[in-house]
Amino acid sequence: MMDNKDSLWVVVETIRGGFQKVALEMLSQARKLAQRLQELNGVRPGVWAVVTGSHPPEDEAMYRYGADGIILVAHPSLEEHRTDLHATVLADLIREKEPQVVLFGATAWGSEVAPTVAARVKTGLAAHCVDLQINEQGNLVQLVPAFGGKVLGEILCPLHRPQMASVRPGVFRAVAGEPEGKGIKLAVRPDIARNEDSIQVVEVRQKDAVGKPLEEAEVVLAGGWGVGSKENWLLLEELGNLLGAAVGCTRPALDEGWAQGEDTMIGISGKTVRPKVYLGFGISGATHHVVGMSDSGLVISINTNPAADIFQFSDIKVVADAGSIIKSLVDQLKLKSH
Amino acid sequence: MKALKMVVCIKPVPSPDQYHHVSIDPKTKSLIREGIPTIINPLDKNALEAALQIRDKYGGEVSVISMAPPAAEENLREALAMGADRAFLISDRAFAGSDTLATSMVLASAVKKIGPADLILTGNESADGGTSQVSAQLGEWLGYPHLMHSCGIEVLDGGDSLRVETHRDQARVVYIMKMPGVVSVIRSINKPRFTSLMGVISSRNKPLDTLSSLDLLLDKAFLGLEGSPTKPGDIYQPDLTRRCVPLEGSTDDVALALIQKLRAAGLQL
Question: What is the DSSP code string of B184-219?
Answer without folding.
Answer: EE-GGG--PPPPPHHHHHHHTTS-EEEE-TTTTT--
